[in-house]
Amino acid sequence: MSDTTGTHQPPSRPVSTLKQRHIIMIALGGAIGAGLFVGSSAAIAAAGPAALLAFVAVGLLVMLVMRMLGEMVTASPGKGSFVEYIRMAHGNGAAFTTGWLYWFFWLVALGSEAIAGAILLHDWINLPVWLLATALIVALNLINLAAVHIFGECEFWLSLVKVISIVLFIGAGTLYVAHVFGPGIPVTQNVLGHGGMFPHGTTAMISIIPTVLFTMIGSEIATVAAGESAEPARNVAHVTRSLGTRITLFYSLSIALILMIVPWTDIVPGHSPFVAAMQAMGIPGAATCMQVVVLTAVLSCMNSSLYITSRILAELARHGDAPALLQRYGRQHTPVNAIMANSLAGGVVAFSSILAPGTVFAFLLSCSGGVILLVYSLIVTSYMVLRRRASGTGEQPFFQLPFFPAINMATLGGVIVIFVAMLINDTQRMTAMASLGTTLFFIVIHAVRGKMRPKI
Question: Is the pLDDT of residue 6 over 70?
Answer without folding.
Answer: no
